[in-house]
Amino acid sequence: MDFISQKREGFRNGNAIRWRIRDLAMEPDDDSPWPANLATAVRGYAHDRDFIRYWHIILRAAQQARRKNDITDEAAFFHIDQAATRLTTPILDTHRWLNYLYTRMREIEVVHGLPTTESFFDYPRNHPAIPDAWKTVKKTWGLFCDQEYYGELGILFEFYGETEMKDLLEKDRAAFELRIEQVNETAAISPDCFSLELEKARSFLPKSSATCFLTSEVYIQKIG
User: How far is CA 213 from CA 54, 135, 162, 209, 210, in A?
Assistant: First the structure.
């Protein structure tokens, strides 16, 4: 498949996921208490592995907790960004050109003797063992991935009415990334009640069902 065909196919698949997220975002809010909605999200994901609906409910629950002043704006920023980031994953996974470039990097690694457990991504940036061919492909992959990721993130913020987050991302990406770093550090040191309720909801699942909740692989398989 040539470059143009790959772009077109990825665009069609990405749109199918993007519009589904938009449709979910347009649904009326659930009036149930947000802790109950977290439990609903976890039970639903354990049942049908609907990655997109799971993170949609998490994002809406974070907005609900913020409106009720149950969590701070900083905590809400953390949870909303996390959910929106997860929702971009299945869209980026449809980009065949990104996948092609990643495969090409892996082929170069194999030619240079790297086992499947290693990658040049794990090496220091200027390590002499990294071939120029890999660096060239990686640069193209990185630029395209960065552009697509932030573009999709801005779209998702708009879908969910997070205009301040969207404006900060688009007008001052450095400030946006700094804030993400700060709220991540705070969340790691002092988990808020939203995080604790989410972990509580997950704890009721059987161990066989307690997957990481981070992968979009199953959803991608469903849409082909």
Answer: 8, 32, 23, 10, 8
Q: Which two tokens stand for residue 50?
A: 């609907």
pLDDT at 154: 94
- Three-state DSSP class for 55? helix
Tally of domains in the chain: 1
Question: Domain of 212?
Answer: 3-223
Residue 99 is given by DSSP the state H
Amino acid identity at 107: E
Report residue 140 as tokens: 């193209």
Residue 208 has pLDDT above 60, yes or no: no
Alpha-carbon gap, residue 38 to 9, rounded angstroms: 34
Burial string for 196-220 (b: 16+ CB within 10 Å, else e) reads ebbeebbeeeeeeeeeebeebeebb
Tell me the pLDDT tens digit for each residue of 13-58: 668 888 999 999 999 988 899 999 999 999 888 888 888 999 999 9
